[in-house]
Amino acid sequence: MIKNYALLLLALWVSGSVFAQDIHPCGTGDYRSEWFDHYHDHKELYRTNSDDTLYLPVQIHVVGTDEGGGYFPPKSVIESFCKLNEDFAHSNIQFYMSDEWNYINNSNYYDHNFQQGSQMMAQNNVSNTINCYIVLSPAGNCGYYSPGRDGIALNKGCLGLYSSTWAHEIGHFLSLPHPFVGWEGEDDVDYDEPAPNFVNGRQVERVDGSNCDDAADRFCDTSPDYLSFRWNCNMNDSSNVLQTDPNGETFRSDGSLIMSYSNDACAKRFSDEQIDAMRANIQFQRPNLIASAFIPQLITSDASLEVIESPAPDEMVSTFDEVTLDWEDVPNASNYLVQVSRIPVFTLLLEEYVVSSSELTLDNLEEDRPYWWRVKPFNAYESCVEFIDSSTFSTGTISNISILEQATALKVFPNPVSQGGAWQISLQLSQADRVGIRLFAIDGRLVFSDEQQLGSGRQEFTVSSQALSDGMYILELNLPKGRLHRKLNVTR
Ligand SMILES: [Zn+2]
Known about the structure:
It is a single chain. A hairpin with a 2-residue loop joins strand 27 and strand 28 (482-491). The longest helix has 15 residues, at 74-88. Strands 1, 2, 3, 5, 7 and 8 form a six-stranded mixed β-sheet that branches. This protein is an alpha/beta fold and 492 residues long. The model is unreliable at 1-20 (pLDDT under 50). It has three domains: 16-176 and 270-290, Collagenase (Catalytic Domain) (3-Layer(aba) Sandwich), CATH 3.40.390; 308-394, Immunoglobulins (Immunoglobulin-like); 405-491, Macroglobulin (MG2) domain (Immunoglobulin-like, Sandwich), CATH 2.60.40. It contains seven helices and 28 strands. Zinc ion binds next to helix 5.
């Protein structure tokens, strides 16, 4: 699962949805696989006996430019994944992230044509998972499924909490054609005239249902649809465009179908027959995807939960270049999205991070100013949990970095030390100084105190553990630039 990556991303991404009108909805084209036709011709061979939720692994690839710019922001990835699972909820098909997100820096993939996209998938596909690449432009489309590479490319401007693009492309991945299959690319049609019997070699579906078994997408519970461009629906989720079938009967397309090209406001469902086909496809054609059992872990988060541990709300932190944010573990969260802002709202972020533990150290804050931050837990499956808290603190003017640099040079050996032994302590000093050395027991008791005049360069001295019982102690070194602390242990 997702682990050990703290990504630093500038949140300067501007929603691409304003441009979505110019983008072709889907580049999958006229797609009806051999398996799909076999399924329709021999449904008796594809009986599935269970309605259990099928959990499918997804590998998310986040593609940026050669310089590492333009990534789809983590919050957007998480929200889009949430929407994907919502769109599939009524199918009892759900998705989980099989591994950490794969970041790819390649401008030719970021804005690609089909050939470059094919190369991207050949190079990066992970087996036994659904490979989804989030890019700037997948060959000018909102998305496409490549049957040749068995991968999905998605336009970051066509994703998010209100878009069904991801669900649409996974519909293709699980064998579904468009309800208007055959009409792809037919953009100069006079819908007042009766449609021909065939379009691009595909039977044209009639309103009376007489050929729904063979025509178009071969589903009888998806009504005729000849619209292969993005269209808006009316109050009844139907197209405004009236079309005429080969019998001369007029009809409007069903915009509630995710596999149609209706806009995101109306696309919301798969039909029962579409769901049956997808579930059969998973169990008979793609059993590798469900070979390893997945048990979802649910995050139960109370929005009013007080989870911030440090800095305390409104705390004035003394340092500015080393501030550690710390919050309580949220049960079943494997990762946290952390947002840091200079203003009390999170619309224009300083930065966004994904971490696998419940703390994060910031080294990029400015002196003497307020910051706001909030945390959203998620895991491989659950990505719909709200931000659990937001808090504010102010930075001080003390730099911790110069102390930190010395701290990295601070060495204690051996640690733990056995009772009666001595710690050998060495540190690097840029100039000769008096150094205070104190040792505290874990309950705060001072158990040792000394002061030494040390020269410049690497300096060494010892601290004896005689008279100390076993347990943990805190060593404190008082330097002109600040204090260093180390945990020391005494063992029996
Ligand atoms: Zn499509």
